[in-house]
Structure prediction request, 85 residues.
Amino acid sequence: MVKITLEIDGMACGMCEAHVNDAIRRAFSVKKVKASHSRGQAEIIAEGPLEEAALKAAVADAGYAVTAVRTEPYEKKAFGLFGKR
Prediction:
């Protein structure tokens, strides 16, 4: 699994976040996506790396600009005494 962080220009409200989330979900099969206009970011959890150009295109189609992309390994955090949720 990987965590992909997009730096995004142009988001100003919760509706902007929803537009970015929807655009990414439509273009890719992801486990989780969460955009934040206050941080100017979207975080994506996916099974494997996603093509950077395609990510930028999907976000651009929603009316926003990706200024940076970071990809790093992701491990689900365990909860509780025995790692159960």
